[in-house]
């Protein structure tokens, strides 16, 4: 974790503010690639993840953009209303669970503030001469940050509800992509679900979520079985309705965490033995099948015990 100073804020669009952080001593910051995010630890005790959207070549600054969420639980509202230039924040990262993979072509889809990781991807793909197309959707044109920035680089389709009306033509956009293109999508859950439904081969889809999707049925924690976790010489019992992460904390084992919804990857931990019951929204099918790691905030165990690399 690093202690960084907020050195600049800039209004980008309706409800969106850009934050620029730097090391107070001017030291270089760890390198990052498009798709990476930071975890900001706010003075109100909350931790929130925000995608890096600046220039990866600039090792002196980290840039993120924060949209005010009308249903904010205290994260974005605190940033907009109380965070001031000159203040210090504890910052984790960068971490990247949404990295660009090698592909012959790319289809990029952003919804609202989901443009933040996508904008960095657009610039990287443009610089390397890759084949890409972007569909950027928003409720209003005034709220669409970075629209001019990405629009100047290549084939970008903007769909603002207050201008275009109706729903974006996802099917038409996807049909125009090469059959071997990877599709990267970041935005609200309805957009991610619609893209997955419209895509002929969902294995080509890479997504980043704002928050965990609503479960299709209520979770019945009473149906969970207790199991043990082994951390070195310590054995702890994880009871129904209590997460592995909570169990470890109660016994004084500190594990980094942030979203606690199974979407950010901060608490991902290597599994040395046992079979996890994966309940996250981040790991790929291949990663789940390997059982090499698990997200401690939501996942449980299919075996009587798990041995964790802690």
From TrEMBL:
Residues 225-310 form the 2Fe-2S ferredoxin-type domain. InterPro entries: 2Fe-2S_ferredoxin-like_sf, 2Fe-2S_ferredoxin-type, 2Fe2S_fd_BS, Beta-grasp_dom_sf, FAD-bd_FR_type, FNR_nucleotide-bd, MRET, Riboflavin_synthase-like_b-brl. Its cofactor is FAD. The keyword Iron applies. The lineage of its organism: Bacteria, Bacillati, Actinomycetota, Actinomycetes, Streptosporangiales. GO terms for molecular function: 2 iron, 2 sulfur cluster binding; metal ion binding; oxidoreductase activity. The keyword Repeat does not apply. Keywords: 2Fe-2S, Flavoprotein, Iron, Iron-sulfur, Metal-binding, Oxidoreductase. This is Ferredoxin-NADP reductase. Residues 1-101 form the FAD-binding FR-type domain.
């Amino acid at each position: 974790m690093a202690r960084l100073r907020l050195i600049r804020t800039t209004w980008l669009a309706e409800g969106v503010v850009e934050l620029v952080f730097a090391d107070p001593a001017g030291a270089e910051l760890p390198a990052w690639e498009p798709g990476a995010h930071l975890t900001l630890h706010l003075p109100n005790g909350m931790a929130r993840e925000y995608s890096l959207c600046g220039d990866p070549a600039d090792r002196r600054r980290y840039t993120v953009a924060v949209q005010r969420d009308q249903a904010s639980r205290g994260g974005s509202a605190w940033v907009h209303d109380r965070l001031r230039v000159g203040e210090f924040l504890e910052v984790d990262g960068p971490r990247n669970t949404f990295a660009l993979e090698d592909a012959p072509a790319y289809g990029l889809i952003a919804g609202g503030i989901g443009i933040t990781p996508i904008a960095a991807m657009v610039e990287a793909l443009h610089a390397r001469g890759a084949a890409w197309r972007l569909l950027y959707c928003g409720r209003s044109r005034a709220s669409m940050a970075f629209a001019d920035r990405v629009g100047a680089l290549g084939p970008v389709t903007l769909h603002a509800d207050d201008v275009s009306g109706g729903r974006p033509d996802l099917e038409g956009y996807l049909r125009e992509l090469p059959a071997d293109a990877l599709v990267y999508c970041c935005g609200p859950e309805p957009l991610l679900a619609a893209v997955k439904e419209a895509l002929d081969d969902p294995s080509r889809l890479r997504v980043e979520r704002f928050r965990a999707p609503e479960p299709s049925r209520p979770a019945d924690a009473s149906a969970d079985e207790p199991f043990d976790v082994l951390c070195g010489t310590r054995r702890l019992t994880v009871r129904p309705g209590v997460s592995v992460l909570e169990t470890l904390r109660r016994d004084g084992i500190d594990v980094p965490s942030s979203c606690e919804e199974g979407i950010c990857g901060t608490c991902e931990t290597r599994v040395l033995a046992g079979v996890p019951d994966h309940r996250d929204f981040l790991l790929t099918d291949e990663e789940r099948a390997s059982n090499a790691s698990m997200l401690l905030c939501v996942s449980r165990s299919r075996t009587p015990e798990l041995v964790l690399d802690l």
